[in-house]
Amino acid sequence: MNPLRALDQSSKLKDVLYEIRGQALVEAHRLENDGHTILKLNTGNPAAFGFEAPFQIVRDMIEAIPHAHGYSDSRGIVSARRAVVYRYEQLEDFPAFGPDDVFLGNGVSELITMTMQALLDEGDEVLIPAPDYPLWTAMTSLGGGTPLHYRCDELNGWQPDLEDIRAQITPRTKAIVVINPNNPTGAVYTREVLEGIAAIAREHSLLLLSDEIYDRILFDGAEHIPMATIAPDLLCLTFNGLSKTYRVAGYRSGWLVITGPQDHAEGFLEGINLLASTRLCPNVPAQHAVQAALSGVQSIDALIGPSGRLHEQRDAAWQGLEAIPGVSCVKPAGALYAFPRFDPEVHEIRDDAKFVYDFLVAEHVLLVQGTGFNWPTPDHVRIVTLPEARVLSEAIERLGNFLSSYRQ
Ligand code: PLP
């Protein structure tokens, strides 16, 4: 028999990074196999921290299962797409759209992948925030495009820096990604900043890609302003889903809404349609969760209010981090994360991936390094604020103790 030919990873993957489930997670699994208990603060997966799926959603999905064994329309079942239309009709100033302007997906993740594959040619540029949710950067690269990162300004509550966005525009810029509320920083963007981004998109004819998966996870009265309401005159794709607000990340259920003028973008939109067809359809039982989720009681409200669990946990994480010498943290106004800064004058960290690894091995807590979110310097980590306040406080205390003697 001939020797088997070596199989390398495709060169398409050379710039595709996803450190949220990277090498440190492999080590965490190894430690678990050795019998250790690891507190995994790397993924925003509410179910892993005792958040239950809303009963109504589970019930409707179970009732649907006996009739959900066939493929559906590639865009998704009509009742779910209508429920998405209804959801946005309730939002002031959201531009009108119909069920045919909605694509359901196996999570927002699949829809991001499809969008970038349909949009990009070699050398096309996409503006993406730094720090970002890294799937946007990864899928831009996989789609053959070039991600360019615009800075969000930590000293200004992590709001996007409009000057930096402007400075990075070239004739090859095709789209701008907005993640609001933001993962990993928890920032909720002001109207002025969103208007500034829309003005830049208008001036340079850019597609707006707005990831709003945390739009209902807001604290202290923060207001979420959908990008599409600011730019009804521009083509805007809004992404959202059930993973966070409805705590059913494992169902893999999300949607994409298209608003604004479409005539100039027929080819691109046909491309999305084609890719939706090639994946046949999203998981059908999970599509049946959409209508139940969107039309029922919004149970997230009780979790984010002043005495709600998510609110308490956000406070515990933020207070604990701020109490560590040489650590500061912009108070998250939304989402499920904190993104603290380690002052380089106080903490000597040259390689933040190594820091995360060393902390995991010593303290059995898994974080994700800031550079994993395309933040350029090794001075941040992301902490998921989903565990109960007591557990978070203890993990952060361990972080403080570990940092006090850590050198690289
Ligand atoms: N977008 C952002 C900003 C996220 O934080 C996540 C998951 O953490 C996703 C998209 C992916 O969500 P889904 O579970 O719908 O694929």
From TrEMBL:
The organism's place on the tree of life at top rank: Bacteria
Domain Aminotransferase class I/classII large: 38-399
Pfam families: Aminotran_1_2
EC number(s) recorded for this UniProt protein: 2.6.1.2
Gene3D superfamilies: Aspartate Aminotransferase, domain 1 (3.90.1150.10), Type I PLP-dependent aspartate aminotransferase-like (Major domain) (3.40.640.10)
Lineage of the species this protein comes from: Bacteria, Bacillati, Actinomycetota, Actinomycetes, Micrococcales
SUPFAM superfamilies: PLP-dependent transferases (SSF53383)
GO molecular function: transaminase activity
InterPro entries found in the cross-reference section: Ala_Aminotransferase, Aminotransferase_I/II_large, PyrdxlP-dep_Trfase, PyrdxlP-dep_Trfase_major, PyrdxlP-dep_Trfase_small
Obligatory cofactor(s): pyridoxal 5'-phosphate
Membrane-spanning residues: none
Keywords: Aminotransferase, Pyridoxal phosphate, Transferase
Family as reported in the entry's similarity comment: Belongs to the class-I pyridoxal-phosphate-dependent aminotransferase family.
Organism, as annotated: Microbacterium terregens
Name of the protein in question: alanine transaminase
